[in-house]
Amino acid sequence: MPNLTVYRLTLPGGLHVGARGVDLAESSVSVPSDTLLAALLDAHHRAGGQIEDWFIPAADPGAPARDCPYRLTSAFPYAGGVHFFPIPVPAQAFFSNDLLKDRRKDVKRIRFISEGILRKMLAGKPLDEWLFPKDEKADPKTGVALQGGALWLTLDECAHLPDTLRYEVTTHKPIAPRALRRHAVYAETTVPRVTVDRINTASNIFHAGRATFAPGCGLWFGLTGQPPADLTRALDILSEDGLGGERAAGYGAFTWTVAPQPLTLPDPPPNGAALLLSRYRPRAEETAALQHPGAAYELTAVAGWLHSAGGAAQRRRRLWLVREGSVVYLPGGGPWGDVVDVRPNYENPAGDLPHPVWRAGLALAVAWPYPPQGGQNA
Fold it and tell me: Distance (Å, rounded) from C-alpha 132 to C-alpha 178?
């Protein structure tokens, strides 16, 4: 079973991570594993570290990445002592058809599930009775909704939420579990910004998306295996420089801690179903991971800008990755995934980049117990 070392990030100034295309007004509340690893690798490199210490062979930059001894999850929300995970893609696997007919909208609204709910899924248990009540005024007996139903946790886990979600601020009275549906772990907003033309001083207003977190809440990610060289130093540098975009406006700076206990989850069996906790780029010999009739996955296009020391910013090549929460059938016993050079391949007046630009699609997954449901993808 993989033991995940849990790193917890507190972001007092909020976070901007592009959600779709180049629209600054869109921001994600989580940080994908490829973005997180790229940011850490950049901090490691700027501090004088060697890239090949992490996953790239030094002898031939064009060679495939070697199987590195670690994997990262994406960064997901946490609230106090409750860690959340992405809702799995195949929702029909753990709900009955009758429940889905009655509460399909409620199920579709869920974005993240707690560790307690995840463990019930990984145990193969039906979850109809664990879904939070349909009536917002009803007292939950098993499952509880947070964030308007975007977050789903168990009633027992409410005791591990931060005090800001357990007690009223003014009266200090306990917050009833049914009322948690109207309390937020995070807020997704847009902030007005302005640019000023250097020549004629004309102003131009634009909006940038920002995710902010309630006190006692933030993001966490897990690492399994041997940590890469100087990870602590890279985290310290990145915590000051900031994670994500709009860092000049104060977004992305964080403090970090390591949870006292590792998180243990079941390993995916060889050639069996696996639930992804990271983004994934299958190697050429791993394409069968998406071709199994029981696979249920979503693809996301990853693009954006790259910055090279002493050079102008350029667009990275677009890369398709399998999203977190997807169920795939990983061939063999692992490790799985690839690292791709996404440096631009178009004609550039500034000249070609003299070095590769790596984007990692290294899979971190756990066993998925449900039988094939006919397959789906998006």
Answer: 9
Question: Going by C-beta distance under 8 Å and a sequence separation of 6 or more, which residues neighbour residue 291?
Answer: none
Cα–Cα distance for residue pair 127/217, rounded to 1 Å: 26
Could you read off the pLDDT of 186-238 as tens digits, one per residue?
988 766 666 666 777 766 765 567 788 999 999 999 999 989 889 999 999 99
Compute CA distances 347 → 350, 352, 358, whole Å: 9, 8, 20
Per-residue tokens: 155: 């009633």
Q: Which two tokens stand for residue 211?
A: 């995710």
The H-or-E segment that residue 104 falls in is helix 97-109
How many whole angstroms separate alpha carbon 246 and alpha carbon 190? Answer: 12
Q: Which has the closest alpha carbon to 368: 319, 328, 315, 323?
A: 328
* DSSP structure class, residue 57: -
Residue in this structure with the two tokens 């639930």, named with its chain if needed: 275
Sign of CA dihedral 216, 218, 224, 230: negative
CB 251 within 8 A of CB 332: no
Is residue 152 within 8 Å of 185, Cβ to Cβ? no
Neighbouring residues of 220: CB distance < 8 A, sequence distance ≥ 6 = 6, 7, 8, 9, 75, 76, 77, 78, 83, 259
Q: What is the DSSP letter of 250?
A: T
Backbone angles phi, psi at 51, to 5 degrees: -60, -35
CA distance 175 to 184: 13
pLDDT in tens, 319-356: 899 999 999 999 988 789 988 888 887 766 656 676 77
* C-alpha span between 121 and 98 (Å, rounded): 18
Domain spans of the chain, in order of start: 1-81+186-265, 273-377
